[in-house]
Structure formats: structure tokens, C-alpha cells
Write the C-alpha cells for this entry.
Amino acid sequence: MELGIVELSRLQFAMTAMYHFLFVPLTLGLSIILAIMETVYVMTGRPIWRQMTKFWGTLFGINFVLGVATGLTMEFQFGMNWSYYSHYVGDIFGAPLAVEGLMAFFLEATFVGLFFFGWDKLTRVQHLVVTWLVALGSNLSALWILIANGWMQNPVGAAFNPDTMRMEMTSFYDVLFNPVAQAKFVHTVSAGYVTASVFVLGVSALYLLKDKHVELARRSISVAAAFGLASALSVVVLGDESGYTESHTQKMKLAAIEAMWETEKAPAPFTLIGFPDQEARETHFAIKIPWVMGLIGTRSLNVPIAGIDQLVAENKARIKQGIVAYDALVQIREQRAALSSAAKPSGAEAGETSTSAEGAGTGGISPELRKTFEENSENLGYALLLKRYVDDPRNATPEQIEKAANDTVPGVLPLFWAFRFMVGFGFLFIAFMAYFFWMSSFGGERYPRWALIFAVILIPAPWLAAELGWFVAEFGRQPWTVDDVLPTALSVSRLSVEDLLITLGGFVTFYSILFIVEITLMVKYIRKGPYQDVEETKAWMAQHERRLRALGDEDAIPVASPAE
């Protein structure tokens, strides 16, 4: 029954998180693209760029609102479905989330309102500053959330306190500049930029296929292709950085992604394709590229990458050390309970003994026990893995220790292929963006019909790639909620299966409705197209004509449509 609760809790959070992330990358990318377009408008004064900013801004606003609505649900789930997790590590995990809410989210939300309602109330430069602050707020929100998630992947700057029985922050600087969090942030936001670029390019291609809003579409393709190419290249480069950090912080995840069962001689090869068999501990029909994995994972030719079997053996030893830490912790708690009982006030001694009780929390504990705990405390989480099989890890049998050690291996087959599909999409986006960048810059903006059709078909692809990336990141961390610290099986709230099924059904229904609303609104405004401010366009054209007449260049006076 407990396993059912864990699985349903994971399913519910995965569903809400992955649904929420449908909105995040488009918000991140569109915010920057809007700022770029409005910058061109302020520099040139051409109304078409204001029209573009307003049109793509409308789609950004729809996406932003629904992203906020779905993100709030996830915040509440930490308290409802993962209460022990919140109690155990809330002091660390909650800090960046609080900063995100107080600083980044309110900054973003405030300036989003000014963006939509300040066009006629602010000067061009003032409104441009607002748009860039919207983009800054969006990306700062992602930064703080990924700092929190990065800490779950690599819990630095924190330590377990045996007196409070919780993890406590020891260095906010280490949490903030966690190398895993920094690598995840730049990789994730770059993926968001690619998502928005593909979206803008795909919708613009649809307009060209229908011969509608041609000027807006051509200019949008030029911006999206240039921005998207730079972003797609950075995703691959930053993905390499993520692989390098994992070789130091999450060795088991890296080994599972590569289906590397045994430690191979350096430099390790990269398995291009294959069919991992977790029971047989081998990969069938593997095609390997020599040296590549060693260069990605270690950036050297002589440092080996640990295989799954070696890591399982190491984790088995860590479980045994964790049992020593667990035993010392139990004895510390027993001694503290005895001291607290002895220090309870009675009668006239209440004032005097209550002062003694305040110090009983830390004083009087055997120094040898504290030393033993501190020497083995980093492996306490591994002893907690045994809770799945036995109430008291100290009573675990060798067979149970073996099972717990094998539990540290995540599902290899889904990780292996999810990673390869994600990487395949990444290289596809580079080729796609490079082609459109070349055609928009050097090909006279003459796009073949097949290329435009492919651009429309490709619109969902970056979302699929992003979801695969999150699957690799989160599923690859199992069986941990906080890597090496807190097992997932111990993190959940004491809920019933019925409670979880009811709420899961509610979320699926509610989110399905929101998804229909999102698609309906997006399609409606894409079909409607951009709003054309004819008066402003005429005013700009008249001003431009006067400028040319003043220069004596009447032959250069344009005969153009208001859309230009």
C-alpha cells in the first residue's frame, strides 16, 4: 500500500510539473523575442515592429497567465503530497522559492501589466524598458526555481542537524552558486529560447503559406531564425556542461543514461544506439563511438567513468556506513529524551529546572556518539533506503542491503532512449535554424514550400524535447527526492490511495480544460492575426516622406502598403 501511495504521489506531481512546463519555455523565449522586436521598433520607428511586438505579446500573455495558474498548484503540492519532504529540507528548498516569489515573480507580474496597458501611457523608451524588465523577471523566476531544483540534484550548502532532525542550510552562497543549478539554468533557458523561436518561425511560415501578413511573417522569421540558431547551438554546448557536472555529482544517473554496466577503460566510448537489458546487465546490439563519452564526461583521456556495477558496490558500502550513522542518531535521540525527562520541572523548582531543560537539547549527549554520527552522517540517507524493507535499518539482512543497493539504479532503458531522442532533437533544431537563417540572410527570404510546411509541422517538437529533458533529469535521480539525502519513498504525506486517486482525477480534468482553453485562445488569435494601427502607420509614412523631401531625394519616397 505504501508503494502505491508513493507511485501515485509521483505520478500526480509529474503530471502537474510536466503540464506546467508546457508554458514555461515559451514564456522564457517569447519574452526575449518581444524585447528584441521592440528594440528594433524604438531604433527605427517603423510601425511594423510595434505591430509585431503587440501580436506576439498577445500570445505571450495567454501563455503567461495559464503558466502562472498551473505553477501555483505545484507550490501547494509540496505541503499536501510531500509534507515530510517539506519538513525535512524546507529550510533550504524553500529559500530560493521564497526569493522567486518576492523578487522575480512580482517583478514579472507588475511589468506584464505595464507592457499590455502602457503603450499609450509611456514613451517608447519607457515601454521598451518595461518589456526588457518583463524578460528579466521571467528569466529570474527560472533562475530561482532551478536553484531549488539544482539543490535537490546536488545538495550542497546544507547539513543534517541531529538536534532538530532536519536538514539545515550552512551556506546560502553554496546553494546559490551550485554548479548543477547554474548548468541547469543556462541549459533550460536556452531550450526555452529554442522553443519560442520554433513557435514564432512555425506560425510565420503558416502565414506565408496562406499569403497573409507577409511582412510581419518575413521579419519574424528573420528574428526567430537568428535568435533560434544561437540558442540551439548554446543548448548543445551547455548540455555538454551538464554531462560534465553529472560525472562529478550524479555518477549513477550518467552511467544509466549511457547504459554503462561496467567501468570501461578511459576514455570511455559513447553508445550511439542499443537496447539496455537491466536484468541481464548488458546492452544488446550496441553501436559505440570510441572516446566520445570520456571526453564529454571527464574532458580527459585518462579518467574513467564509473559503471553501474561499480557504483552499486560503492552504494552497498555506503548503506553499511549509513547504518552506523543511523544507530548513532537513534542513541542520541534516546539520550536526549532521557535528559529531557530528567529536566522536567516540578513544584518550586520549575523556574530553575526549566533553564536546565533548555540546554538539554544539545548538552549531555555523549561526545563519542556525536563524533561517530558526524563521521558517517553523509551516508545517513543510504541507510534510509532500507526503510522500504525493514522498519529499523539496523536490523536489515544482507539480502535487504543488496536490494537497497540495487534500488539506486534508475530505469536504464527509458533513460537511455529519452536522452538520445532529446539530443537528436537538439541537432535537428540546429540544422533547421541554420537553414532559415541562411535563407533569410543570404537567400533573399525565398523559402521553399516544403521548408515552410516542415516549419509548421515542427512546432510541437521543442516541447517534446524539453519534456524529455525533464524526464531524464528527474527520473534519473530516482530513488532520491534529494540526491543521496532523502529517498522518495520517505518523502510523501500520509494520504490514502483514494485521496490521491480523487485529486489526480481532479487535476487531469482541470488541466485538460485549461489545455483546451490555451489551444483555443492561441488558435483564435493566430487566425485573427496582428492588429494594424493604420493611423500610426500613415503618420510614420508621412513623417518619413517629409524627411526624404527635406533631403531632396524624392525618388526614394516609398510607395508602400500601410503594413510596411
In short: The radius of gyration is 28 Å.
